[in-house]
TetR/AcrR family transcriptional regulator (Methanobrevibacter millerae), 195 residues
Amino acid sequence: MAEFNGTEMKIIHATFAILQKEGFTKATTKKIAAEAEVNEVTIFRKFQNKNNLVEITKEYYLQILFDKLADIFDFNEDDEIEAYLQSNFIGLLNLPDNEFSVFKIAMEEVRDIPEKKQLISRITNVIIDKLDEFFKFQIEKGKIRAVDSRVLALVCFSVTFQSVVLLKVYDENPNIDSDRYANNFLDILYNGIKA
């Protein structure tokens, strides 16, 4: 990760705060300068333009998120499937708001700039790739039957991610404790829906 001085970090943090509140299209260098308590000229001197500043800010926070996701989705050879998946769900659910906000900004980016889906794709690919790796390993060990590990990873990611988005972004509470929710999800995954 690139090294930034104190003023640059103030500007990067302010940019992230404005992106969280306003989204890309409404974020202006004037608002960012006010939030960072610097002159707008300082932003242009340090980052040239708004687009560069936003890209640097996204990359900075994306790397922090990637490091956290690597911790959440890392596994050991002896990890049990159920415990691993529950740990992933709880880990995502317990991400601090400032780290989870990268997801929010990525989703806003797709809405504001539909042709630019790369940020959300990069985030989802990191998670899906790690789940795929875990399921391939479990198939090799004979812990789960031979299925398409990528499809299984996508199913688990979809349910987990959508659930976490509903809880953290939209404040939708399914009136169920997160541990119980994770257990019920895993029960359906393992046992299906047939009576």
The mean pLDDT is 86. The chain has nine helices and no strands. Residues 105 and 139 are 35 Å apart (CA to CA). The chain has two domains: 1-60, 74-195.
